[in-house]
Predict the structure.
Amino acid sequence: MAESIVHDTHSSAKGGHAGAPQKSFFGLLKRPGEGCHPVIDWLTTVDHKKIAIMYGAAALFFLVLGGVEALIIRWQLAGPEREMISARFYNQLFTMHGTTMIFLAVMPLGAAFFNYIMPLQIGARDVAFPRLNAFSLWVFLLGGVLLNLSWFFPGGAPPVGWFAYAPLTSSTYSPGIGTDFWVLSLQVLGISSLAAAFNFIATIINMRAPGLSMMRLPVFTWMTLITSFLIILAFPAITIALVQLMFDRNFGTFFFEAGEGGRPILWQHLFWIFGHPEVYILILPAMGIISEVLPVFARKPLFGYPIIVFSGAVIGVLGFAVWSHHMFTTGLGVIALSAFALLTMLIAIPTGVKIFNWIGTLWGGRIRFDTPMLFAIGFISMFMIGGFTGIMHASVPVDTQQHDTYFVVAHFHYVLIGGSIMALLAGIYYWFPKVSGKQLSERWGKISFWLVLAGFNLAFFPMHFLGMTGMPRRTHTYRADMGWTEWNVWSTVGAFILGLGMAIFVGQIIYTAWKGRRCKADPWDSRTLEWATTSPPQAYNFPRTPIVKTRDQVWADKYDSEEIHLEWGPEEEHGIHMPDRSWYPLFAGIGLFIFALGWVLFKEPVPFIPGFANFLHLQVVGFSLLMLSIYLWALEGPGGYHLHPDKSKDPYA
Amino acid sequence: MSDSNAKFRTLTLLVLLAGSVLLTGCLGPWDQKQSALDPRGPLAQDQYNTFMVTLYVTGFLFVTVGGTLLYTVWRFRSRKTDDPNTIPKQSHGHPVIELGLVLASAAMLVVIAVPTIRGIVYMENMPKDLHDDAIVINVTGLQWWWEFEYPEEGIVTANEMYIPAGRAVHLNLRADDVIHSFWVPKLAGKKDLIPGQENEMWMKADEPGYFYGQCAEFCGDSHAYMLFRVIAVPEEEYRAWIEKYQEGPAIDIADPGAWEPDDAHEELIGKGIDAFRRHCVSCHRVGDQGGLTGPNLSHFGSRTTLAAGWLDNNPENLHRWLAEPERVKPGNLMYYGLQGMTGLKDIEISDEEIEAMVAFLLALE
């Protein structure tokens, strides 16, 4: 380590408060400090940047996994009446593909960006609750593991769809424990998302640098804030629904059982009042990224910043008022159908406003076509197509023909691949130099972009035709005489081209992280605060507190008058206080994982160990570990050490 | 030099545009068996018309907004000849432009909203002039087949629905197990069949025709095999069909002794009756004999398809369906048994018995 390190506690630095605990009250586990083994460092880290990198790496792994599942699906559909895989396996694949992509790939990729970029953009040293942040990461990772463990148990993964409509999910119609894995892993993942969302909200509200008023916040940070609010408002609905489903399946309740007085439709309302805001949870971070990338590569500020921010908030609010448009065919009646149709159309307006403003940002600029910009322009055009088909779905009479067909599959893949994934790729290409200090190859970046764009359109555009000519979703095969064969073949070819593009992208990331060449701290001539430090940033992010004078502060520093240049707060005499690492977020996560696994398996006999009737003991073990970890977490005290920035390594020091 | 370049580019753009228009033309025809773009009834027609409105509006927006995007990207691209130190004007937006665009997009939505609301009312309420001679059919969705009951005529059949062309049909939609969705794209958009809920819809075929339908809500293993047909026939034919069904099946299985075979084939049918009574009758009904949990087979021989519309009804397919049902339709309850009841997996059926049952079932015209 280059920095001269002073190992002492916060309390002693201040002259010693007698009562301030230095480490765990019980001395069970010392908080690992500076200079610990790298493996321990990563397992116990509370640094938002390391946590973000782990989020990103895990999300990319799950993205590849979900992608492979999609390719098997497309392989099966490449011809009519094919029997490459069984109907059951196909149903498991689309369930796992959807769940994986939404909860384990796109959401955590967003979380990776929130974690890495947002604290830098607001001039903070870390998030508000660094250990809670680590807890979110481990709970997400173990939740993903829990979901995918289902493949290895008898009966395999859940065959119920990511939307898991009751009563198909009941113990009568889906007796396998795959569905229990699905229920419990979503609960676990929800805890991760909620903890992270509260953390981000607290961070953005409280930890902005002096002078960084809300209306000077970078749009990406704004979208982080709005997305976090959506998460804390949307997830409780699915939490309740999942608890009800768990009780229906295991403890004889009848929330969704029509024969016993329950209502299957209740699940749909609860699911979609979560599920629709979830769509915006997936797309608002993408819109935030685009709103950062476009100004940099057009060399112009965002056009209509207040309106972009405001329309993001309006989308967030309206997102809670349109859930029933997923249920237009369930018999809602004229009034509800009309209301939800009109509200859904309304949401097109703030979305359209964003697109207009992005084009306005480009207008009059000097547009450079580096890879991030290509993905950003790809995002606008593809997302626009997805938006237009969304408007079609808002029209109930049209939707009754399109609902649950490949037209809808085309629509949401245009929104989620053409939208979310394209934007996330733009973000990865844009911020990779910030994170690694290395630059991704422009040549391979462009190859990957054109392959992704071409493959994606070839895979998903024909699905519009398939849907309008009657091919339903979630069918593992189709009759040869239906006239769908040709488009399905094209679609499969496209999917494999898309897969190739993504493989090149992932390979490029791994290669560059390994062997890439170093680049400048600010290679893109960027505009926002995260570029006012080294790339990659030091552990403390900023050696002194930045004092912000304007929106697009880093651009102003380079091209604007002296009086709005960034200022730095005073140097801290005792050095920069850094927190110690902690074992407890990881242990609490493991405890929660074991607890959840116990609820999945508690009716199963334990193999090889006679005398253990079932896995109920796992719940006791898991819950105890969780509680103990939280208790010790609360008691372990601040600890920490001081860093004295080294000018030769950090020119900002 | 730059001028000829620009000309060349414009030409390329025009060729590309013309090409894509041509390509779109080549993509058709759009009259696939289950195509919503080939409406054959007033409700499907209304939905198609509204679809075209949305297509034109969004198509217009796509061309204008997408065109503006393309033009912007093209016009404001950085050029090699640019002075690298030029900073474009740092403009921050224009409230009037933005307000104007908000209002314009709202106006576009009104164009879609009007036929939408009208379409909702039309779809949810059968027009008064169609009421008087409308027929009623109760549709029940089950894993993975359809029961069609004509309550006024006292008829129960499965997977193939006869309706009179030119008359409206009122459908009561019910489900006993999981959620299904009734969808005949050429006649009407879909509506779900939800356990514990009484949904209804209407549809009408203008002309006689053979229409493909399919379950549109994921309902388990064999969801992809849950098809059906709606057969619209002229009024007289419909009446004849009703009468035939009301008369009962061609063979009365209540008293197998009454079957007097004249030739080898009829002898085979006789054996089929016996086998059917042994293996099938606890779930399947022929005439007034048999259980109610499986599809009613009273007039099976007159059906065009079997296994809920998946296979064409012919001796080979029927033989395969009876010999290896779990291969044809994974998870099906005829093989596995309904909730703990005996299924074909539990019993041995010889090949001769299957031959005989095929002969018998196809004789149920």
